[in-house]
Amino acid sequence: MPAFPPVRNWLIELRDTVAPPEPVYAHCDIPCGIYDPHEAQIAALTVIRMDQLIGELGAPPMDAKPEDRAAYVSKLARYTAVKEQHAEKAKHEVRVIWGDYFTPDHAKQFPQAHELVFRILKQASKCRQGTALADAQELLRLVQEFAEIFWQTKGAKTKKQPSMQKSGGDLVVPVSA
Known about the structure:
The protein is mainly α. The protein is built from six helices and two strands. A two-stranded antiparallel sheet has the order 1-2. Strand 1 (157-162) and strand 2 (170-175) form a beta hairpin. Helix 2 (38-56) runs antiparallel to helix 6, helix 3 packs antiparallel against helix 5 (113-129) and helix 5 runs antiparallel to helix 6 (133-153).
């Protein structure tokens, strides 16, 4: 029987080599009680900024040098990848707050919250699929609306303040009552 653990360990290593486990991410299922829609707003602002940069990126002329074409393709790929990552991050942040923080009482108090979360998730997906600046701005607007509701559940009033980011836009922040 003492030989069983090494065999078991070997089988586990073999399984992990053939089918590596996927990483798992979580906010904090303790629950810690620390939630804030700030990251979702920053992610939405990043989507706006990437769409702005993509819009400003001029396609190289047909007779451009290969290195100029390569630079264009590289920038476009990087801007697109960052835009998609942050659209997904906005979805993740909203899902965590909705799934881990919101209670049935919150849902009763703010019956529009369920539909709002659904719209945010769909809008973020739309932002991943295209580069329309209006779509990114709508994502920010929806996330701001979510932030306002979130802070109301904590009894805080909110205000919009300029983000001071190149993308422009405001951030919804709590203010003392």
